[in-house]
Amino acid sequence: MLKTLGAQVKEYKTASILTPIFMILEVVMEMIIPLLMSSIIDDGVEKGDIHHIYVVGIWMVVAAGFGLFCGLMGGKFGARASTGFAKNLRKSMFENIQTFSFSNIDKFSTASLVTRMTTDVTNLQNAYQMLLRMCVRAPFSLIIAMAMSFMVNAKLASVYLIAVCGLGLILALIIAKAMKYFKEMFHKYDDVNASVQENVSAIRVVKAYVREDYEKKRFQKANEALYYLGKRAERIVSLNMPLMMFTVYSCILGISWLGAKMIVQSTLTTGELMMLLTYCMNILMSLMMLSMVFVMMSMSVASAERVTEVLNEKADIVNPENPVYEVKDGSIEFDHVSFSYNKNSEKQVLHDINLSINEGETIGIIGGTGSSKSSLVNLISRLYDVTEGSLRVGGIDVREYDIETLRDEVSVVLQKNVLFSGTILDNLRWGDKEASLEECKRACKLACADEFIEKMPDGYDTYIEQGGTNVSGGQKQRLCIARALLKKPKILILDDSTSAVDTATDARIREAFAKEIPNTTKLIIAQRISSVQDADRILVLNNGEIDGFGIHEELLDNNAIYREVYESQTSGGGDFDENGGEA
Question: For residue 200, is pLDDT > 50?
């Protein structure tokens, strides 16, 4: 864990080294000042030597000024190192998340990843700054002050030693008690973030079903759980200050009482007593700093584990040693393919799939909910890897391709359509960042998206809100199809991507595909028979197995599942929207 986090310091190593150096120099200056102050009192004030007071006083000002400069520089470099460290952590986490396959992403919730990149990284940033500054300053100050105290008067210094040992033991118990609550708190942060994220992203559904009160109670429950743990932890940690102040004042009283006796007995000077009192404050304040460091470190341990988990997560799907950089054609062949999301699971999502699809064919895929239609097509672009058997695209196993090359040739319009904040052109150019306006317009025409884009006030420069909330479901689907077409793929996969458009528009889209991209292999997952009945062949899936594969007429004659779906959809006189309409 330390090695993983330490690697993120990178270009901020110099600042990370300079910070403790300046902290040590600041401590040295602070330790010199009590010595000079003692000299002024004993050799200047009591002897009436004004010249000595001036000389030593100037040296005190110089020491204080240099100490202030070192403190400022330590703060400056400490801030640079800690913020840079946090920046690198966020960057590395984000970049690693981008390499994750779907199976990697399934291990983490979205809310958890957001918490790790925000709250957890902030905790580590604060902890790192404390590590560079307080964690160097506090122990160094404590050791030097203790050594100087014993050099002045071992008897009085023993008071410090007893107080430090006792207080250190109590603080250790407090921190150990509080640490378990801090660890639990971060899991509650995930729950709060999940509640907020779901509510905000689905606010229209919440309002449509009048579920505001339910969502408030849900958030309140997560918030109360976080509050309870935070209160318990802070209540324990809050004992630090009163215990510290009790110890400080007890030491001052003890040293003042014993020191006064020694001054009367001429075994201690007034200047030495003042110096011991100053060192007393330094020692106990250093101990308090250390207690704060330990509290922050105990909080950051949980954060460090969560951040390291993301950084060390290795993508399940990686490039082979000598990848193939060219996809010959859009032919697809499933050879005894089986698949399960959990490799240790006994139940397979897909079982013994044997399927051969020629380049340029249009294949309809139909089946009930949970029949693994999406799982089947996700294997083609290697969003998941097959568990058994092999899957070949263009005659080559997909595991032998360079991942980027393969996915550039396989355009997938997923079941859940996503648009990003930006203009319509910005979203379309996810398919091809160099696409011209004319190419974008042509893709939109094929996807039947041009008709509504041209009616918008700003046309292709119309701004799309995050998630595409300012366009309808059918419009969103057509924009996503146009975006996929801009990639000019050898294989086009539509995963139930026309469910929100009327059947007339659906038919026009399919007709455009047949005329304009005849050499592109097209796989169309649909719930409506009308969307697939004109396909070259239709695949019927049932419980992860092939139940039928053929043309529309053949399946009507010999496949019970297909015939049942067809009859249920046509017995009422056809689709309600077959004459057009907008979803």
Answer: yes
Tokens standing for residue 299: 């909080």
- In one letter, which amino acid is 113? L
Contacts of 143 (CB under 8 A, 6+ apart): none
**Lowest pLDDT segment from 33-47, 98-112, 440-454, 476-490:** 98-112
Q: How far apart are CA 86 and CA 84, in angstroms?
A: 5
Is there a contact between 524 and 542 (Cβ–Cβ < 8 Å)? Answer: no
Output the CA torsion 560→562→564→568 (10° steps): -170
For the chain, percent helix, then strand, then coil, each to nearest 5? 65, 10, 25
According to DSSP, residue 462 is labeled P
- Kindly give the pairing relationship between strand 410-413 and strand 491-495: parallel
Contact, 547 vs 559, CB < 8 A?
yes
CB 370 within 8 A of CB 545: no
As given in the structure block, the two tokens for residue 565 are 């779906």
Classify the phi-psi angles of 573: left when phi > 0, otherwise alpha if psi is within -120 to 50, otherwise beta.
Answer: left
Question: Per residue in 269-316, pLDDT tens?
Answer: 888 888 888 887 787 778 777 777 777 776 787 788 889 988 888 888
- Our CA angle for 323, 326, 331, nearest 5°, is 110
Alpha carbon separation from 330 to 360, 382, 415, 537 (Å, rounded): 7, 15, 21, 16
Task: Report which of 102, 562, 567 is spatially closest to residue 374, judged by C-alpha positions.
Answer: 102
Residue whose entry in the numeric block shows the structure tokens 């396989």: 410
Q: CA 228, CA 231: separation in Å to the nearest integer?
A: 5
Strands (E), 287-345: 332-339
- Cite the DSSP H helix spans in 100-153: 102-105, 110-115, 121-132, 134-152
82 Cβ partners below 8 Å, 6+ apart? 125, 126, 128, 129, 132
